[in-house]
Design goal:
Elements: E1 5-13, E2 16-24, E3 31-36, E4 44-47, E5 53-59, E6 65-66, H1 69-72, E7 82-84, H2 87-100, E8 104-109, E9 112-122, E10 126-138, E11 144-150, E12 152-155, E13 160-168, E14 170-184, E15 190-196, E16 211-216, E17 221-226, E18 231-233, E19 237-246, E20 252-258, E21 264-267, E22 275-279, E23 282-284, E24 290-291
């Protein structure tokens, strides 16, 4: 049986060491989403390779798993066309199906849609499916975007480079941790000198909810978790800031990337959320510094 892994943010606040232990479930092989043949408010339209159209909606909570004799009991004969849920999660799914009118369950792995099945029946513990259809098509639905945005397009050697981190397109975000590093360049380096969270910003992702944040200078990461509840952030929301210093011999174009082993988003039930990253670059050369207008 797999156990939950933990991720710890270490920080210093007022001279005292603070450790925030953030729980996250193991990486999942598959993701289940509500779907429909018809347009539903809030669902995203996806054109399939065969010319047909489906609409993909909310992800089924992480408690969903294929039915097995072990999790259903010895007196139940399982079929491949069932999902087994715990009672509370099953009730939530049943309510979502009733509320949205969804008539399909979509199965994806690593943002590749692999199956579509019709919903045949919903009970307090099981969703029964039929007419499963194999798909195999890349989709980019329901994936959060982490954006790394430099405040300057170009700097000179010895200057500081500030990178703000934002998230968008995410639902039920409760916890995040992000670490950023600089890559590329013709010579020299951009060395990280500070990681911080400006909780006073109006666009801070947890500005409207009570949360604890931390910045780990040793490992170069920032993070926060709410004291309860979660937020939806479809528009771009601030997560943290990283400051780098251009070495005296730095030159060329430097990019920025999220360090995946030290970065994650998770939802209200400690489920890891998929995300992709976008970033701009900074040019290091002798001359005038150019600021980015956002």
């Amino acid at each position: 049986m797999k156990t939950k892994r933990t991720k710890t943010i270490e920080a210093w606040a007022g001279g005292f060491a603070i450790a925030l232990t953030l729980a996250a479930s193991p990486a999942k092989a598959q993701t289940y989403r509500l779907a429909s043949h018809k347009a539903i408010n809030g669902f995203e339209k996806v054109q399939l390779a065969d010319g047909s159209t489906v609409y993909l909606g909310d992800a089924v909570p992480s408690g969903a798993k294929p039915c097995s004799t072990h999790n259903k009991g010895r007196d139940h004969t399982c079929t491949a066309a069932e999902l087994s849920l715990s009672g509370s999660l099953a009730a939530r799914i049943a309510m979502s199906v009733q509320r949205t009118g969804a008539n399909l369950i979509a199965v994806s792995r690593d943002n590749v849609l692999i199956e579509l099945s019709e919903i045949d029946a919903v009970s307090l513990s099981t969703i029964t499916l039929r007419n499963t259809r194999q798909v195999q098509q890349a989709v980019d639905v329901g994936t959060a975007v982490v954006t790394l945005s430099t405040r300057s397009a170009s700097v000179t050697p010895g200057d500081a480079v500030t990178v703000d981190v934002f998230v968008s397109g995410v639902d039920q975000l409760r916890t995040f941790q992000v670490s950023v590093e600089a890559t590329g360049g013709t010579s020299g380096s951009l060395d990280r000198v500070e990681a911080s969270v400006d909780r006073e910003r109006a666009d801070y992702v947890f500005a409207t909810i009570q949360a604890i944040d931390a910045a780990d200078q040793l490992h170069g990461r920032v993070g926060a978790t709410t004291m309860g509840g979660s937020v939806n952030a479809q528009d771009k929301r601030y997560l943290g800031t990283f400051t780098f210093m251009a070495s005296r011999d730095a030159s060329g174009t430097f990019g920025f990337t999220v360090r995946p082993l030290l970065s994650f988003l998770s939802d209200a039930i400690a489920q890891d959320l998929a995300y992709r990253t976008t970033a701009n670059a900074v040019q290091v050369a002798t001359g005038k510094t150019t600021r980015v207008t956002r």
